[in-house]
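Need a sequence for this fold. Nothing fancy.
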């Protein structure tokens, strides 16, 4: 599942919370605004005059659009790094993936762990964090270009607790 597909499965309130968390990174607001202006073909002067709810609707539409796949991945990653760093670091640590806090320190493709180790790491996340947060994080992790873990992909498809539901 790509990041824009994750956004399609989040409620508007969840998506707004993700954007708000991502915007704690000072680069994100300009990137989101640029994406909205580009992908929705809205002039800046018109966008600036729109009400807050209308602007939020444009942001949601943009992040759920296939054309903005890279922006969507950037935003969901930034939100997770801002708000879920402890969970990310715990997951990486339990798998033995080299990392600096929530940041993977492996160059290139991240080697897939043994299925038993991955299952244990996922169960540890469920024991410590809300299931929805775990599901969003693991789907976002699996959508990273350097992650090609067949075991994780299979678990994301088969585990009900990891379901993000149907698209909005």
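Here you go.
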């Amino acid at each position: 599942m790509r990041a824009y597909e994750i956004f399609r499965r989040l409620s508007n309130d969840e998506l707004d919370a993700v954007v708000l968390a991502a915007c704690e990174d000072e680069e994100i607001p300009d990137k989101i605004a640029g994406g909205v202006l580009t992908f929705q073909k809205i002039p800046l002067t018109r966008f600036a005059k729109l009400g807050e709810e209308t602007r939020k609707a444009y942001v949601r539409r943009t992040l759920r659009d296939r054309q903005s796949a890279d922006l969507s991945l950037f935003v969901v990653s930034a939100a997770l790094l801002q708000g879920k760093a402890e969970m990310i670091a715990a997951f990486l640590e339990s798998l033995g993936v080299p990392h600096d806090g929530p940041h993977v320190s492996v160059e290139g493709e991240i080697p897939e762990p043994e299925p038993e180790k991955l299952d244990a790491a996922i169960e540890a996340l469920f024991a410590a964090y809300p299931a929805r947060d775990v599901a969003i994080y693991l789907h976002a992790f699996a959508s990273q270009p350097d992650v090609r873990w067949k075991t994780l992909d299979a678990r994301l498809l088969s585990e009900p607790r990891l379901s993000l539901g149907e698209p909005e």
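For context: The longest strand covers residues 99-100.
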